[in-house]
């Protein structure tokens, strides 16, 4: 069971803001701090960038302050039973930089919308949203606590990857993708592969073949037209790449998988 007691989004304080609760709370506190801050953990001061998440355990000291700028955070006071949180105990009382902070902040806002609503199933909805938040935070923790250099463009990389799959017909090139992210071609290739474990141009090919499979299954379009819709100017090149990735020609793939007439 998971239960929110109080919560708020985008709460702001001036640059002199500080908290010093030596005994913490009798419940847990989640903070997504959207400004630079300093946390005192086990007597050690840790300076953190904007978009840092911390989940304080019950009765754990809360010591944190603004760091040279207006302080802003999302916050949740909550209770839980032992079965709900056991998998995530390693995340407690540890500042964690969140590269996909828009995603996490959106989850918190969705929880607030439910918490302050009269929806019939708001408790279940909030619990599922919190589970998603914890899974994403654990995923981030396993990528290491602070990865500020790479994480600065993490959201943009995700947007780029989504755009590649949404628009496989585009005339994608490394130079075009690097320009979109305002980084060098070399850095794009390095950071993309380190993030998604595939090169950016291999991703383009994957997106085109994925779309080709869909068109072959769902339509009666000629292979040449499908080739064009998937961003290929040369049908022979398309057929070679398709067979390389699937071991089948487009015609063979259609014959084995087509839904038409079934």
Automatic annotation (TrEMBL):
Annotated HTH araC/xylS-type domain residues: 158-256
Pfam families assigned to the protein according to its UniProt record, in alphabetical order: HTH_18 (PF12833)
GO molecular function ontology, one term from the record: DNA-binding transcription factor activity
Keyword Methyltransferase: no
UniProt keywords, alphabetically: DNA-binding, Transcription, Transcription regulation
Protein name as catalogued: Transcriptional regulator, AraC family
Species of the source: Clostridium cellulovorans (strain ATCC 35296 / DSM 3052 / OCM 3 / 743B)
